[in-house]
């Protein structure tokens, strides 16, 4: 069985990101096709990315927080990123969390749930691009939530019921791709 991490994309005070992540986890918990875990990037206390060399060149992380983050991402087979849209992009904390690592992301699958005034579409597309370099395969179904219709006063998450079907479709794809890519990682490990 594959392990899927539902990763928060914001660390700011008063964030609604955890409400969305917990909702996705509640839908995932009704399923029996994978192990699902909420992974809050705020818990890892990652400093702004400032390693002496990029992770693609060395996994000798200087920041002790990066070592703990590396272990967590390495043990997961796939991801669901919950990303708000800030100025038409992902948050700097999410970008830093991605940039700290490289091989830990390789040959894994991800789904993206975006939210914002325009459904988080631009941030989700920005995240797709950021994940392409560390070789994360992003699935096609991309749920988008509106700050105007899926949140009360832009602060209390209250999603429209039809979103659950889209979340399940995305989870189907993430589990299928994560399962397939696990065999790729296993084959690569044997060859090395």
From TrEMBL:
One of its GO terms (molecular function) is oxidoreductase activity. Its EC number is 1.-.-.-. Residues 2-145 form the NADPH-dependent FMN reductase-like domain. Keywords: Oxidoreductase. It is an enzyme of class 1 (oxidoreductase). The keyword Oxidoreductase applies. InterPro entries: Flavoprotein-like_sf (IPR029039), FMN_Rdtase-like_dom (IPR005025), NAD(P)H-dep_reductase (IPR050712). Pfam families: FMN_red. Belongs to the azoreductase type 2 family. This is NADPH-dependent FMN reductase. It comes from Oceanobacillus luteolus.
């Amino acid at each position: 069985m594959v392990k899927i991490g539902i990763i928060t994309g914001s660390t700011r005070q008063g964030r609604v990101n955890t409400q969305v992540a917990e909702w996705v986890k509640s839908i995932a918990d009704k399923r029996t096709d994978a192990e699902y875990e909420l992974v809050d990037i705020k818990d890892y206390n990652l400093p702004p990315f400032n390693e002496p060399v990029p992770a693609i060149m060395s996994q000798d992380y200087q920041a002790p927080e990066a070592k703990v983050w590396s272990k967590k991402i390495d043990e997961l087979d796939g991801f669901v990123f919950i990303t708000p849209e800030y100025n038409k992009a992902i948050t700097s904390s999410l970008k830093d969390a991605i940039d700290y690592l490289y091989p830990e992301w390789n040959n894994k699958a991800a789904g993206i749930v975006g939210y914002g005034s325009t459904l988080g579409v631009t941030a989700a597309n920005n995240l797709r691009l950021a994940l392409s370099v560390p070789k994360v395969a992003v699935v096609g179904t991309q749920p988008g939530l509106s700050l105007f219709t899926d949140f009360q006063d832009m602060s209390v998450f209250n999603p429209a019921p039809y979103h659950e079907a889209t979340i399940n479709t995305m989870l189907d794809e993430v589990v299928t791709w994560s399962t397939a890519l696990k065999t790729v990682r296993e084959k690569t490990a044997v060859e090395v």
